[in-house]
Specification:
The chain is α/β, with parallel strands linked by helices. It has one domain: P-loop containing nucleotide triphosphate hydrolases (Rossmann fold, 3-Layer(aba) Sandwich), CATH 3.40.50.300. Helices cover 52% and strands 12% of the residues. A five-stranded parallel beta sheet has the order 2-3-1-4-5, sandwiched between helices. It is globular and about 40 Å long. The termini are close together.
Length: 197
Amino acid sequence: MNRLFAIVGMAGSGKTVACDALRELGWHYIRFGQLTIDRLKAEGRAITEENEKRMREELRKRHGMGAYAQLALPSIDEALAAGDVVIDGLYSWSEYKILKERYGGRLEVVHIYASPEVRYRRLARRTGVPEDDRHRMRQLTPEEARSRDYAEIENIEKGGPIAMADHTVVNEDSLEVLRGRVGRLAGERRDGESDER
């Protein structure tokens, strides 16, 4: 059976690196935030942090706090029929519940953890990010990162999916170590699950 991972964690924890490691292993990649980018482009609006925030708020007002999971279900189903899938951007408790109801035990939530001190240092050092990746990997000052942490926990219930994670991968070493840990997790099978697809 094809696997479904949802990568969760706070800003700067290493979610993007974890997702990219799985993509390199051939996993299909679905980024909830791409919905924001696609909608902005369709409406001819510039891709800016302010416009992205406004679009996220519009989508959640229209479809509820689980908007991104609900809107992504057809893409997830299609990708799962073709192979293993990694979801980047599961943030809210409502999104988690929608995915859990749809996929049950097939959904594996993977929490990428790094301490606030480590994350804030990483976020402050982010430079030279290619234009196409800036919406995935933003540079933030420690003050901006802390403010974002608080807002995500208080306003979109980001702590819920993290608390319910099936796996926790600690990322306080090198990128190679993180890739190795994620690769090993991807290679593991759940109890009673065959390696046959």
